[in-house]
Every structure is written in C-alpha cells, then in structure tokens.
Batch of 2 targets.
Target 1
Amino acid sequence: MTIFDELESEVRSYCRSWPVVFDSALGSRLTDVDGNSYLDFFAGAGALNYGHNPPALKQPLIDYLRRDGVTHGLDTHTAAKAEFLRAFREIVLEPRGLDYKVQFPGPTGANAVESALKLARKITGREAVINFTNAFHGMTLGALSVTGNSMKRGGAGIPLVHATPMPYDNYFDGTVPDFLWFERVLNDQGSSLNDPAAVIVETVQGEGGINPARVEWLQGLAELCKRHGILLIVDDVQMGIGRTGPFFSFEIADIQPDIVCLSKSISGYGLPMALVLMKREHDRWDAGEHNGTFRGNNPAFVTATAALREYWTDDVLEKETLAKGERIEEHLDRLAATTPELTLTPKGRGLARGLAFSRPELAGKACAAAFERGLLMETAGPCDEVMKLMPPLTMTEDELDEGLAIVTDAVHCVAAGA
Amino acid sequence: MTIFDELESEVRSYCRSWPVVFDSALGSRLTDVDGNSYLDFFAGAGALNYGHNPPALKQPLIDYLRRDGVTHGLDTHTAAKAEFLRAFREIVLEPRGLDYKVQFPGPTGANAVESALKLARKITGREAVINFTNAFHGMTLGALSVTGNSMKRGGAGIPLVHATPMPYDNYFDGTVPDFLWFERVLNDQGSSLNDPAAVIVETVQGEGGINPARVEWLQGLAELCKRHGILLIVDDVQMGIGRTGPFFSFEIADIQPDIVCLSKSISGYGLPMALVLMKREHDRWDAGEHNGTFRGNNPAFVTATAALREYWTDDVLEKETLAKGERIEEHLDRLAATTPELTLTPKGRGLARGLAFSRPELAGKACAAAFERGLLMETAGPCDEVMKLMPPLTMTEDELDEGLAIVTDAVHCVAAGA
Amino acid sequence: MTIFDELESEVRSYCRSWPVVFDSALGSRLTDVDGNSYLDFFAGAGALNYGHNPPALKQPLIDYLRRDGVTHGLDTHTAAKAEFLRAFREIVLEPRGLDYKVQFPGPTGANAVESALKLARKITGREAVINFTNAFHGMTLGALSVTGNSMKRGGAGIPLVHATPMPYDNYFDGTVPDFLWFERVLNDQGSSLNDPAAVIVETVQGEGGINPARVEWLQGLAELCKRHGILLIVDDVQMGIGRTGPFFSFEIADIQPDIVCLSKSISGYGLPMALVLMKREHDRWDAGEHNGTFRGNNPAFVTATAALREYWTDDVLEKETLAKGERIEEHLDRLAATTPELTLTPKGRGLARGLAFSRPELAGKACAAAFERGLLMETAGPCDEVMKLMPPLTMTEDELDEGLAIVTDAVHCVAAGA
Amino acid sequence: MTIFDELESEVRSYCRSWPVVFDSALGSRLTDVDGNSYLDFFAGAGALNYGHNPPALKQPLIDYLRRDGVTHGLDTHTAAKAEFLRAFREIVLEPRGLDYKVQFPGPTGANAVESALKLARKITGREAVINFTNAFHGMTLGALSVTGNSMKRGGAGIPLVHATPMPYDNYFDGTVPDFLWFERVLNDQGSSLNDPAAVIVETVQGEGGINPARVEWLQGLAELCKRHGILLIVDDVQMGIGRTGPFFSFEIADIQPDIVCLSKSISGYGLPMALVLMKREHDRWDAGEHNGTFRGNNPAFVTATAALREYWTDDVLEKETLAKGERIEEHLDRLAATTPELTLTPKGRGLARGLAFSRPELAGKACAAAFERGLLMETAGPCDEVMKLMPPLTMTEDELDEGLAIVTDAVHCVAAGA
C-alpha cells in the first residue's frame, strides 16, 4: 500500500489513470521515480503551454528566489507585480487595442470566474447568468453553478441555481439557427427566463469535449449580448495564452468581451496565478470587496513576465501553434479515414484537439493504451468519449510525430479489441 | 500615475494602506524599491508564520527547481507529494493520534472551505450549515455564504443562503450561557432552523477581530455537534500551523474535528497550498468529484515538507510562540493600563494578538502611524476597530520589542491626537 | 372618489378595464348597479364554466345553507365531502379508467400547484422542475416560480429559482422538432440541467395567449417524461372541467398525468375550491404534511356535486362545447379573412378561444370597444396581444352570436382607427 | 372501507382524530350523520369566531344568493365589495385611527402572507425576512419559509431559505433580555445576517402552542423595526377578528404594524376570504402585480359585512371574550393546581387558550378523551404538547362550563392512566 492509498482522499483522480510516481519534468517529457520517460499530450490540463520548467522562465524564477524577492504579497505593490503589469500592458493589451483593467482575484481559474460573476452581478443588479451546455468553469460554488457536468454539480450538495443553460454552438449539429432559443426567450416577456446579468462562455470547450465555437457564432453571441445589455464573459482559462494560436482565443472573432478570465498558463511555469480583465468602465469594485490570501504569488509574476517577453513579442509561437495544430488535424483525419469501423470524429482548434469516439468507452481505452506506450493523454466530454490532444505549444515536431504515432497505435489497438 | 493606478482594478486594498513598492523580504523584514526597511507584524495575513523566505525552506525549493522537479502535477502521484504526505503523517498526524485522510482541494483556503462544505453536505444529505458571527472563511460563493462581513457578502450579488449565524463565544460578554440559543433551536422541532450538515468555526477569529474562543466553549461546541449528528469543521487556515502555539489551534481543547481546513502557512514559504483533513470514515468522495488545476503545486509541497522537518519535530517553536505571545500580552496590558483614555482591550492567543479600540476609527489611525514608523500592521474586526499583531512566529525577541515599541508610539500618537 | 379608489390597493386590475360596479349575475349576463347588462365572454377567468349562479346548483346550495349543513370543515369528514367524493369517483374517475387519489389542498389553483410540486419533489427526491414558456400557474412563490410572465415574477422580490423553462408547443412555429432541446439536455450528462422532479404543463395556455398544444405534442411529452422518470403534472385549473370539451383537457391525448391540478370551475358556482389528483402509487403524503384552513369549503362541495350530476352524466355538454367552439372558430376565421390589414390569428380549442393581433396594443383597444358595446372580454398573451373568448359553456347560441357580433364590431372599430 | 379511506389522500389529518362524519352545525355545536352532537372548542382553527352558521350572517348570505348577487368577481368592483369596504372603513379602521389600504390577495391566510412578503421585499429592495421560533404562517412556499414546524418545512422538498429565525417572546423563560440576539446581529456589520426587509410575527402563536407575546415585547419589536428600517408584518390571521378580545390582536400594544394579514374569521361564516392591510404609503403595488382567481368571493364579503355590523359596532363582544377568557384561565389554573402530578401550564390571551403538558404525549390523549366525551379539541405546539381551547367567541357561558367540565374530566382521566 502506497502512501497515497493510505493517506490521500478518494477524491484523487488523474493518478488512477497514470499509476506511477512522477519525479521530474522538462519540456514535453516527464520522468517517473523509476526513470521511465513519458511524452506529454496533456500539458497540465492547459497549465503548461510552454512545457515543463521552461529554461527561459526557470532562470529568472531561481534568480528571484535567490535574491529573496518578495514571495507572498497579497495585493500590495511589489516590484515583480509592477513589472508584470507593464509587460502585460505593453505586450498583450496595447498591441491588441484592449483597454482592460486587471484584477488579481486569487490564484485559480475558479477565483477568476467567481470574481467575474460577482462583478457582472454588481454592474447589472441582476442575479441570473447564462452558461452553455457542457461548460466547465470550476469547482467552487459560483463557478460550479455555471458548469455542466452532472457528477461535479452533484458534489455541491445544494441545488445549484441562478444559471440557465443555453445550447453551445453546434449543439444540434447545425440543424437549428444560432441563438434561436436564446434570443426568443430574451425577447419574450412571458418566457420565465430571469433577466441575465451575464453570459459566460469558452470559445473552445475543453472539458466539454474540445468543442470549438465558430467565429460567426462568437460574433453573434457578442452582438446578442450587446443588444440585450448582457455582459459577455469569456472564460479563457484553458484556451487563452496561445492554446488556440493567438494570445486570447477570442481574437479570431474580433470581439472584445466585457470581462475575461485568465489562469492556467498565465504564469507559464505551472505556478498558481489568475487574472480578471474588465473593460475600464466595468471596474466597479469597491476596495477589498473581493480578496484572497494568494492573490500576490510573486514568483508566478516573475515567470509570467518572462513568458510574455519570451513568447509573445512576436508571432512565432502563434504561427507554430497553428501549424502544429494543422499537422495534428491532418493526422487525425487520416486516422479517422483509415479506421471507419470506429466512426472517429476529429475536432478542435490550434493545439486544442480531440478525437471523439462514437463508442465512448473506447476513448478511455485508447488513452490507457497510449499511456502503456509512454504518452500521457486524458479524455474529455460528457461521456468521456473524446481523446484529448493538448501538447505543450513548444513541443518539437519530432515529439509531436512521436506522440501522434502512439495515438495511432493506441487507436488501432482499441480497434482490434473492439 | 503608477502602473498600479493605471492598470490594476479598484478592488486592491492593502496597497492603499502601504503605498510603497516592496521588492525583497527576509525573515521579519521587507524592503521597498527605495531601500526602506519595514518590520512585519502582519506575516502575509498569517501565510508567513516562518517569516519571509526562510533559508531552511529556500534551499530545498531552489534545489527542486534547479533539478527540474515536477512543478505542476494536478493530482498525479509525485515524489514531492509522497514526501510531504509521509512527513505530514509522521510529524503531524501520528504524534497527535489523528487518523485523518488528506485532500488537496486547490491551493487556497477558500478551496479548502468549499470542499469541506461539499463533503459535509454529501455525508449528511443536508443543505444547511451553521457559521458564527464575525466569521471569515473566504470569498468564493460557498465560503462567502459562511462569512460574516456585510460588505464582502454584498459583493456576491445574489442572496447568500443556506447558512445561519450563531453567536460566537463571548458574543454577549459572558452574560448568556454558552450555546443557549443554538441548542434550543436544535432541540425545538418548531424553531424553523433547517437541520444543519455542519458547523464551521475558527478557534480564534482573525478577520473578525482576534477573538479567541475559550477551551470550554470549543469543547462544548464539539459535544453539541456530536449530540446532534452535526459535523464539526475547524477552519484552521489562519490559526493553524502554529499561529496560536500548537500545530493545530484546536489541540488545546483536546477535540478532534470531523474536518479541518488548512492553508496559508502550510507551505511555509507563502506559496499557494491548502489541505482538507477528514476523519477516515468521512472520506466519502467519489474520484474526481472535486478537482482543480493547481492542486498539485509541487514546489509548495517541497517547502511544506522542509517546514515540517525544520519546525515541528520538537516543541521549540510552540514554546517560543507561547512565550512571545505572553510578551505581547504583557506589553499590551501595560499599554492599555497607561492609556485609560482610549479604553483599549488587548486580546488574542499565542501570536494572534489584537488591540481593540473603543473608538474604532483610531485603530486604523494607529496602524497608519505604525506604518510611518516602519511597522506593517492591519486592522481587523467588523468596524476595523482592532489593531492586529501577527508577527512571524520566528521573529526575534529584539524585533518583537522593536515592533512593540512602535505600537506604543503609534498608540500614544493617536491618543495625543484623539 | 369611490370607496375603491380610496381604500383598495393599487394592485387591483380588472376593475380598471371595466369601471362599473357589478351587482347581480345570471347565466351569461351580469348587471351593474345602474341596471346595465353585460354579456360575459370572460366567465370568471374560467371559474364560471356553467355561467353565473346556475339554478341547478343554486337550489342545493341554498338548501344546504338553510339546513345548517357544515360550512367550514377543514379536512374533517363531512357528509357533503363524502357525497362529492362519491360523485367524483362515479361520474369522473371510473368512466375514464382513472385510479387517482384526491387531495383537497386549499381552495385555490395556486394551492393545488404548490401541493403538486411538493409531492413531486418528495416522490423523486429532486428539487428542479420544468415549466414552459408563457406558462401561468399562480402567484404564491412555488407557483410563481413556474410562471412565465416577467412582471408577475418580478413581484416575488427574490430570485425565482429551481425551475427551468422549455419551449411550449409551436414556440418556433413548427420549424424545430418537438422536444429537441428538452430531450437533448436530459440525455446530456454535461448539459448543466438539474435533474427535474416534474414537468408542469397546461394543455392549452390561457394567460399565455390561448395556445393549444397539439395532441401529438402532449403525447410526446408524456412519453418523454416516462422515459426519463419525470413526473407529469397537468395544470387543468383553467382548461379542465369542460373548457376545451371533455372533463379533463388531456383526454384528447389519451394520456394519464401523474398529478392533475383542478380548481376554478370545479365548484361550478364560483366558490373557492381546488383538487389535486395523484396516481394511487404517488400518494406519498404524510398526514398533515400539507394543510390549510379552507380546504373544506363545504358549500363548494355541494355545488360541485350538483354540477357533476347536472353536466357530466352524459356527453351533451361536451358536444355542445365543441360545437360552440367551432362556431367561434368559423366566425373568427371569417373575421380574420375580412380584415387582412390587421393580420389577425384565431386560435384555441373548445371554448377557449383567442384572436391574436399582430399589433399587440390593438387587442386591448378591441376589448375596450367590446366593453363599450356591453361585452366583457380580457386580453391574454405576453404582450396582451390576444383577445380572449371564454364564454360560459352554457351560453346559448343566440348569446354567442350576439357576442361574436360585438367582437366583429369592436375589431372593425379598431381597424378603422388603426 | 369508507369513501375517504378509499379516495382521499393520506395527507388528511383532523379526520384521524375525529373519525366521524359531520353533517350540520349551529352555534357552538356540530352534529354527525348519526345524530351525535359535539361541542366545539376548536372553531375551525379560528375561522369560526362567531360559531357555526350564525343566523345574523346566514340570512343576508341566503338573500344574496337568492337574488343572484354576483358570486365570483375577481377584483372587479361589486356592490357587495363596496359595502364591505365601507363597513370596514367605518367600523374597523376609522375608530382605531388606522389609515390602511386594503388588498384582497386571494382567499386564504397564506395568500395574505405571500402578498405581505412580496410587498415588503418590493418596498425595501431586500430579500431576507425574519420570522420567529414556532411561527406558523401557511403552507405555500413563501409562507412556509417563515413557518417553524420542521415536518411541514420538510414537505417543501427544496431548501427553504431567505428567512432567519429569531427567538419569540419568552423563548428563554425570561432569562435573557428581549431582542438581545436580534438587535446585536442587526447592529453588527459582521454578523452575517442579511439585511431584513421585514419581520413577520403573530401576537399570540396559535399552532406554535398558544404563546402570547407580552405587550412590552410587541412594543419593543415595533420600535426595533422602526429603528432599523424593517417593516413589521403582523399575521393576525388566527388571532385577529376578536380572538384575543379586540378586533386586531395588536391593539393592546398600541402599535401600528406596517402590514397586517387577516383571514380565517374575517368572513365570519367560514367562507374563504383574506385581506392584506398596508399603510397608505406602502401601497407600492403595480396593477395586477399579484392576482388570483378567488380574490372576489362575494358571498364572503356579504357575511363579512354582516359580521362587522353585528359584532363590532360596540364593545360587547370584546368584553365578553375577555370575560370568558378569564373564566377559562381561572378554570385551568384550578385544574393545574389540583393535578400537580401532571405539571400543567395554562397559557393564552382572550379566547385563545392552551394547557401545556410537561409530558407531551398526554395532551393528545386528553384531547382524545375529550372527544370521547363529545368535545372537539386539537393539540398545538412543536411536540403537540398543548391542549388548545379555542371556542367560538359567541359560545354561551353554559356551553363554556360544559366544555371546561369535559376538559377537567379528560385531564383527570389521563392523569389516572399516566
């Protein structure tokens, strides 16, 4: 019996799929305590877009620690935060013409979502919010109330109310006009829909099964929100910071959300950090109205700043991400075409990719087969029916090909057994 | 206009009291970008019980980073987590005869509280919970619903329901028997109190104004919970990890809570980390029922392990904490006695100390005067009427005396102006 | 200034459309204190299906009062209740093969709806319910939470939660398959729809604008509920007791709802009375779990019994209702055809009829014009865009023609002014 | 098997205590179908303050029905309503200097409570309300949320939130100052009490066990509400209309509640009717914001008017009520004094009287023994520990003595068996 079995709660989950003890990691590979190496198509569920322990960030981090830079700063002013804010303004906001204020809401994506919902309710004076089918926004009560998964919702132990689900893009496979139901109930004074403060949306649903919303759908949503005085919150926790190519996933739709949630890869080093961006006129917070002990995780500010300087001062990473994404797409298309008996559906955008199985249980089997071959992958989707391919954006082409070959092997293996 | 004024949200608060830019920190002192030094009676709101960047933790942290130990691990097994769990079992649980399972609920205290409430509701099948007047448990919706402060509650933007407040110890200055109201409504089938799943309590209220509950009150609460089949959750986020002397603040009452929340100083280095401890029989979680990206902040596990080994293998720190606490108590008693015109009330336990002003606005003024003299302090209490003294447990006696002298100066200064 | 203006709350509404003081009423006519007579196309909002003070009910009522029969009986056994139950079993339930238990939930439709929702939640252990767009179920909090109208919902003063709206039949004018959205979110474990205890539905929406659901839609709904273990509640408060032809409005669909709410015309004399019918296996109430002072309004039981015996022992009333309904339909079709400039849409079933105006404000004007001509009508629909024709079922053909002529006049008058 | 056993829901309750079939009733006596007579110490749970079928009301009612007066009027103006309003103004409001507007909220006490809560929330813009331990306000969701009984609350099937209980008068047997807890949490910005829109209170709790609040407590409550901008709602549904002596039960405290709920005996004949009274400045309703089919139960208006004219144009009834109340009090005091082994506690005000048993189960047995002797009584209180004496106010002294003799017999019988 390991220390984990003995002492750690039954709530643990990833370790059940990958029953090894990881020790070190670099770039796109992890090594376990027995020296075995694993290629990473998982990237910390999107928190490691630049791979593990990227040297360009590691050195500034160690330097900062070595010189006793402030570690824990709450929301005091620190030199490290100032540097991050300047870099964020210069590298991220200004080139994109975005006039956002920045909030440090606590170090997790759920903190960002909770803050965003509070702020939207304060601004509008309304309680209700709209979320989408198969959304994932986090596990704290506010974030969970806009999350789709029924098992996770059940964990709340109280009825989750105040949010009403609307169909995400393509929920009816294109057979129903976009926003037909949503706009109808908004316009109908008898629909019984409580007036919503905000819509919260992921541009590509990750946990929901790697579902990319079309550009025109996102634009339609932004227009609908504007028409009805509803705030648009983009939860870019998983799909932001380059996962789909551009820094913000919504850039391709040329929209400016009222509020944006960022976390996961924002620190670039897997360190807890999150941001809420809000249009300047929406910064209606009172001082201290939302707080939290770990808002000022300064080592994360240091790596976040280094990451912006390393990866976002030109468009190299974005282009490579798109190119690698296409490489995966082509590979998955071929795979689907050559295993028609499995009716596989490739989907995704940038380096957020999925392979949906018509027989859901096979996706998990394929991930297990991949793990046996040294590749880390997890499933996604409401029935865990999607193999999720989320490699570090910085993965080399050779590693990518190596991983894709394993995916093919794993799928074939499953096909043989199916 | 600084970058903070320009770009950071109005929600920021500590920086308004201390309008400098901190750069580095060591032990009990911070240094700003202009080279000014500040003595710390604040300790990261309890997250820095061992002071800033303690060398005994710093070296293992830098070593771990340098050797590319896994940084971000979600809830996979890692060598760093195994080592932490072993140390926690050996140094914390076993010597105290505690048979707790350990959950990593996400890296903040609010994550721990949200998990604890979910678990209590799942175990009991009830929705209602009991909190106490002037409680503080966090800013996410579940944690906020059991928090007392009306301004912070108002930030929710929806009615916070499911929790009913009960009077904390000494709420009526000893004029009413303990638990008179609480037990009466529990026993009365017509009281309209919804059956509670759990009681959540701090043994010493920090944000609520440094209010220590008496040992017999805590014991009475534990017995009352047992009698009525209510789970007892101790939120030891701020008062645990030695703040009041022993590792767990509830040890002095010789009680074993059903669920314990830990965070803040658990990593020892100001890095985001939190734990939920639950009695073995209460580990009713399903795999993945609660999750979160930053549960596996492995650098924090490394420093947490080093901190346990450094500070908790003997009782030196505990004894010193108690001794320093008495030193503060004596000082504050003298101060109160010599400034009768202010009607000051010292209070607290261990190194969680407060000085309550009968004229609330003076507490803030005294903190400001202390800051002018190079000492960091914040206020607490529903009217911000308490100067809060929470130095690192590792502060030297000289530093402590230096700080106390400033407190005296600051109070005198306020007394003169009052 | 009248006593009403002086003393009655601003909440009053019908009296604003008909600013006269009614004094007496018989059959399909009311008379005001000045002796003016009004033809009734309103029928007490469906509470007077047999017209005003029907002689066949009046005599038993007066006899009962004269002989000092028990008036107020709570839920004691009374001779009058026994007689009603026997008649209800013999005349209503047995011939239709319905094995329902009968609850007297309090004297209003809202009491019936509140009871039905409680019972469904108790049986299933779930909190959520499904209602339909433009539903109307009552004004108490439980009933209001499943009601569509935003003004009335706003009156609650608290967020109305626990109910999720689904599109009623024809909500998209037939362009979307029935239950596409509803069944999709039920089947999708990631939809974020809380599992519903029950669906509550009107077979024809009255307040919602006289919207009849098609037989196949009602059947589809019943099947969907069965498939998903959801209880089907038919709110037959307004459309039951013969309003659409048969005693229960759902008979045409050959379905057996799990729970049925009846009120309005059940007493037959405009006296407050309501019933909840539940399948025998669903009678999971504990004694006294729902109560209320006026559950045993025995004079209403007397008239209810007399009404069953007078009108429901053969199929004459049902056939006449259908015939009169067709007469109205033909008339309205002609009217719409001859006033194409108004784009009128006739709709309805049995003697629940409506005439929808494409320019909503004209419906109210037409009702006002009808009132000037001595005909009582009200509007319905989310924009008050429908003239509602709900005459007593017992109205003579001559009266019906008289009323329809006035409707035509009123519409022409509005057309001329439009 | 009777028709009731076969067909009526298990929810029925009074009939279980009194397993006979009542047929007729007059004054203070009911007669069952076998000709047995029962003296009534129950009075329709307070709905029959003038006894059964009082002749002075019966004749106007029959006359009204015979002349085909409007029966069902919704909220149209009717002659019967005008007459009622005039009588209510002249006989009730003006002599007491009360400037209330009158709302007809639907025919039950729960309708009145639901309306009162809606209105209070609208006026204040707050959601929370305060209720008292052992309160009873009704069974619809809004009314149930302010009701104390846990079995009835459980019937809701959803968590009942938005209301916080406070201790009713004497909840701690006089050992704690009035409003100590209530005022403390209102004044404490950290108490976690949501700001209340209103307090709802019964001046004497009926279902809660015949608990009269002292005059000074009621005055203290009114002052506390005023001080904190909280609306005071008196639910006078059971204790109004003379039950405790004066027309309004709160008259003895010389207070003017912001909102008053009336129902039960307002019609005087056991017919469903209810009123909400609100201070003129509080009539903030929009037209139609709260409605309901049976608001205009005109036969009830007729008997209500007759009752006001018969019983309230002088102070005879009030004085007799007080005298009879004292007669009961003396009798119960003697009974308690002569059966010390039962530790009986008489309590009450006017003709709302109770006899509390220290061994709760004996109260039910005594009521059963009373029923065997031809007297109708029910229990009250959270443990059904109180025999409730609520005779018609119009009961003769001989009948009262007859009933009290039976009570004595029944108690002795129970004492013998105990």
Target 2
Amino acid sequence: MFVKKVDVTTHHHDELLDITHLVQIAVAESGITSGRVQLFVPHTTAAVTINENADPDVPRDILLGLQHISPVLSQYRHGEGNSHAHIKSSLIGCSEEVLVQDGALLLGTWQGIWFCEFDGPRSRRLIISVMQG
Amino acid sequence: MFVKKVDVTTHHHDELLDITHLVQIAVAESGITSGRVQLFVPHTTAAVTINENADPDVPRDILLGLQHISPVLSQYRHGEGNSHAHIKSSLIGCSEEVLVQDGALLLGTWQGIWFCEFDGPRSRRLIISVMQG
Amino acid sequence: MFVKKVDVTTHHHDELLDITHLVQIAVAESGITSGRVQLFVPHTTAAVTINENADPDVPRDILLGLQHISPVLSQYRHGEGNSHAHIKSSLIGCSEEVLVQDGALLLGTWQGIWFCEFDGPRSRRLIISVMQG
C-alpha cells in the first residue's frame, strides 16, 4: 500500500477544487498500475466527490444546491456555527474509491475528483492511498 | 482483480433499477468466493445505492424524496438544465462496496443494490470489480 | 480478511452512536496493523458516517438537519411510514472505509465513526471487516 498526504489550500468559504491531477500524480508515484486508489479527507466540514469537471457552472451549481439543501438553521446549538457544513460533509462523504487500470484512473468521460470545502478558506489535507490487486 | 463492464438501459427520467442479480452474476463469473465487490457508476447524473428491494413503493418514495431535496432551482446556470441531477449524483454517490463470503454478497435481509438514474432515459454503464482477500 | 459482526442497540428514534472504539477493538483483534477497515450497516433505515465526536451538539445538530432535509412527506406510499428514514440511509450511505497504519485508524483529529439510527429504537448489526495490504 502506497500512502501520500497532500496539502490542499482552499480560498473561499464554499469551494469545489478539482484534484484529479493530484490523484493521477500519486498513482504514478506509487508505481502501481493495477488496483485501486482511495481518497480520504480527514476533516469534518469538508468532503470529496466525483462529478463533472468540464463546465465550471457544474461545481458552482452544486455548491448553490448544497446551500439550499443544508442551510444555516436557527435551532442549531454547536457553538462554532458551522453545523450546516458538518451536515454537508456527511451527505457528500469523506472518501471515494476509484479503480486503477494500466496505470490510469478508471473514471467516466465527464468525471473528475473534487475536494469539497464547506467551511473555508483553510489549509486542508487529503490522504491518497493506492492498493495493488 | 476481476473487472466487468455492464450495459444498463434506463427507461424513465428518474429511475431506480435493481441490479443485485447483475452483481451476483459477476461475482460468480469472477470465481472469487471471499473478498469484496465494488460497484462504480462512470456517470455524473447517475449513482448507485443500497436500499430495500422488497416493497416497490420504497424506490418510488426515494425518487420522490430526492426530487423534494434537490429540485430544479432557477439560479442554476449549467446550460444542460440538469444541475439538480448532478447534485443527486454527489449526494447518493457513484460507488458502493459489498463483502463477498462463501461466494455470496454479504447484504442485509432487506438490502438490494440499485442503479440510480437521475437524467434519463439513457444507455448507461456499470463497472463491477471483484477483489480477493 | 478478518470479519466481525457486532450487535448495536439504539435507544431513540433518531440517534448517532459513536462506534469508533468498537472499530478500534476489532482492528486490534484482527492482528492486522497495515491495511483498511470497512464498516458496513446491513439495514435500510440506518447508516454509518464519519464526523466530529468532540462536541455532543454536532451529532444532535446533524440529526436535526437531516430531519429538515428529509421530512415525512404526505405523498409517500410505503406502508411502514418510514420512507424518510430510507432516504436518509441512502443519503448518508451504509458503508465507510478507513485506513489502518501501525495498528491505528488513520482518522483526522476531530473525526469519529458514527452508527446512524433513523428508525429506532432497535437491535442493529454492524459488520466490520479488516483487510491487510
């Protein structure tokens, strides 16, 4: 198993960052050409998802939709005021797993991998692990 | 690792298709009796989930609930008009992983595996990978 | 592969139960010090998620937010009246996967693993599988 911890810097409160190339680089560095790569976000107000990375309006609309789905509610008690971001993190999820074949990610034509910031801007981490087999 | 790409045809705009048997067939074909099977949807307006496959009203209600959760918003900009479907895809997620023991899927009594179409009808693909160990 | 089935008892209709220690115990019992652990919930109105386990208001707010996101809708037809719970199960997801390094879970500082009950109280099961590599 090859494990790489990558620093990710976000610049907005809510942001979708295309990290597909970071994952491709880690897979190349691992030397593993057949297996799987897991992306893990070790944070509770961030996430990782796979979605279209062609039209920049897609990530923009996803963030807008998530604000509609998980708004700030007056009944929340958590003192940091970011319960809506914790909920987005659990809705989207903190990990993804993609197949590796012939050294390449087995993604669909329109799929890219996105780091999801819901309580930024911040310095974040991403754990990329590549497994043979 | 055994990898099989399966064609899935959907017939409605929103649809939950029970694909449990397709996964069972692929596991049998793989010859792997102990390990794990991953389901991966290489699309950005579809998904895969595990939920009840006894009462047909459950998938019907899930689709209805998701329309309530991620409706079409007038503020969306993505030109294809399917941003609400992209959001459903990220909420439900494009992969699932199930244990294989003694050649069988280790699912709960009421669990089935569902291909989720959110922007159909279309010809879709499902990638099934079975890993030993 | 080491597989352990754990009984989980919930005490409320909606509840987030911190199961991080159960996962740590299973990893120790497996004797596997490097690899991955998968948590799988074999139910259709429950789930598993990773989120903050420091402030008890976070799980309380997550449950409140999920009730807002997936309320009981009058249009639901499923006779058991728990379609909103089935939807929460698919939104959060029935599995999580965490890396194991030097015998420890590779979680972030604030991350814990939560069993999510959306239709309790009930006797539930959790399947913990640990894989080397």
